[in-house]
């Protein structure tokens, strides 16, 4: 793929945006038939490689997703791979009818008894508007049981493309999902993204859609300038609270994510503080220091009145800040100073912030993150298996599903420390959030399984190395 399309292929579109993008291509001279050929043949090549000569069953529905299925089947037949189409519904669109007419292989009516190695699910794609009827659900489920490899084309049938909501209970698990033209939100939203197996994208020439969300991608991190020194590289101040263990984890990550100097304001030096961490008991002096590039407030903070006062005092210093954990439970609109800020709530903290900012606690996660970002003028990293980053101007970045081994105490502190370290380096809240979230996910990939938050924090260094 040409390098210029790399960034373009990170866009994530909803159904309306995808339709508009297709219409733009059609207006520029490509017809639906050509688009379907590009999509079907691109997906067909993936299927052919996976099938490697083993029998493939293609389940075709009535819409253009079914049309893709007919193209895939013909592509496999042309390449000598055994293929059978199961016709769940006859094609209803012009492009799908044409695709069917061009297929010269075997087709059987909706027959659940067909067996094979690879099932290609082209029953419904982004046009699904309601749950599968009982007969279609049974057909899909029976075929899925009879095929060890299950490839979903565009989105698995039964999944709502814009939300990632399954519209039927008990939908089969796919081993591979091939997105067509652009990523859809379902590819990154729970619970659908956990049903999709490996994700691949086929480029059909879709152009940039203004306002589209993006998938979190590997950031590019600069090495320190030739004349760098510890302060110019960014000094991060971390404000400790009642439980300094959390700030030690955050500091361990922050020391490895790029900041030149990490200072911890704590009433007493924690016993297990890393030697590189400078501990001060003078919070006022730390906040007044001109060299302070960013602040992290919240991990292990406590939720009492004293903690609330320290939070307000810290944010009053008006430095680029990351507010996490207990800090989020105490944050009030009046504490915001308009300086770059990143908020890193999990779902429970998000609900507390929504109460504090008088926002509805309903809607999709990405919509809730966008609403909080708009109300607070902060960048919101809504954490979870399907983390999203929302910016105050409506920017939206969705993260590929994170390692489930991250579900262990302390990993949130590591994320906060990583983002804060990046914020200290350059002061750009959106960029720091993206870099931090990517580094965190990559560190988890590097440490693998059954890791501790401390091991994760140490692996941030290796993750940074991959971005240089
Ligand atoms: N439009 C284009 O230019 C392209 C579309 N492509 C494919 O087209 C797909 C979208 O096509 P469609 O919009 O035709 O959508 P689908 O193929 O998902 O099918 C939608 C049709 O099924 C009906 N329907 C929805 N839910 C149903 C249910 N539960 N039970 C029964 N019928 C139901 C709808 O009323 C509509 O007639 C994409 O996912 C992608 O696979 C690709 O071929 C690329 C090009
Ligand atoms: K499908």
From TrEMBL:
Residue runs in coiled coils: none
GO molecular-function terms, A-Z: ADP-dependent NAD(P)H-hydrate dehydratase activity; ATP binding; metal ion binding; NAD(P)HX epimerase activity
Lineage, highest ranks first: Bacteria, Pseudomonadati, Pseudomonadota, Alphaproteobacteria, Sphingomonadales
CC cofactor: Mg(2+); K(+)
Functional description taken from the UniProt entry: Catalyzes the dehydration of the S-form of NAD(P)HX at the expense of ADP, which is converted to AMP. Together with NAD(P)HX epimerase, which catalyzes the epimerization of the S- and R-forms, the enzyme allows the repair of both epimers of NAD(P)HX, a damaged form of NAD(P)H that is a result of enzymatic or heat-dependent hydration.
Binding residue positions for K(+): 65, 121, 157
Domain YjeF N-terminal: 18-212
Biological processes, Gene Ontology terms: metabolite repair; nicotinamide nucleotide metabolic process
Species name: Novosphingobium aromaticivorans (strain ATCC 700278 / DSM 12444 / CCUG 56034 / CIP 105152 / NBRC 16084 / F199)
Catalytic activity: (6S)-NADPHX + ADP = AMP + phosphate + NADPH + H(+); (6S)-NADHX + ADP = AMP + phosphate + NADH + H(+); (6R)-NADHX = (6S)-NADHX; (6R)-NADPHX = (6S)-NADPHX
CC cofactor note: Binds 1 potassium ion per subunit.
Protein name (record): Bifunctional NAD(P)H-hydrate repair enzyme
InterPro entries (alphabetical): Carbohydrate_kinase_pred_CS, CARKD, Nnr, Ribokinase-like, YjeF_N_dom, YjeF_N_dom_sf
YjeF C-terminal domain mapped to chain residues: 213-467
